[in-house]
Amino acid sequence: MTGNNTHIERQGEKENIMDTLIIPDTTTNTETSTDLEDMYVVIVHNDPINLMHDVKNLFMLILEVDDMKASQLMLEIHNNGHTAVFTGSYDECNEKAVRLQKATLTVTVEEA
Fold it and tell me: Phi, psi (5° rounding) for residue 21?
């Protein structure tokens, strides 16, 4: 069985059988549905203008990711035509998007 459930076993009084009561995990997640509704993503689209290594360097500078993550994002964009590069509040995403657009990347901000 998957999930974080608590199993409580008790012995039956007459038939000497074991009953199992499964109590679902009710701990709250740190992200509630309202948090997710307030989240946005920055999507970078492939273009024929920017060189792959320049895009990677921009990701390292603006998104503050390491070389490996920047390369991964750049290749996803190159292979798939676009990818989400950053998730955050609207203001955080807008700030990242403006900086990426000023560097001539094609960028959109969408609700998560």
Answer: -110, 125
Q: Are 109 and 43 in contact (CB under 8 A)?
A: yes
Domain 33-111 - what CATH class?
A: alpha beta
Q: pLDDT (tens digit, 9 = 90+) per residue, 29-78?
A: 555 445 566 899 999 999 999 999 999 999 999 999 999 999 999 999 99
> Vertex 10, ends 9 and 15: CA angle to 5°?
130
| Residues 81 and 46 sit within 8 Å (Cβ to Cβ) | yes
Helix (H) or strand (E) holding 100: helix 90-102
Residue among 64, 26, 24 at smallest CA distance from 42:
64
Residues contacting residue 23 through CB under 8 Å, at least 6 positions apart = 5, 6, 7, 8
* Predicted TM-score (pTM) of this structure: 0.68
Q: How far apart are the C-alpha atoms of 112 and 109, rounded to whole Å?
A: 9
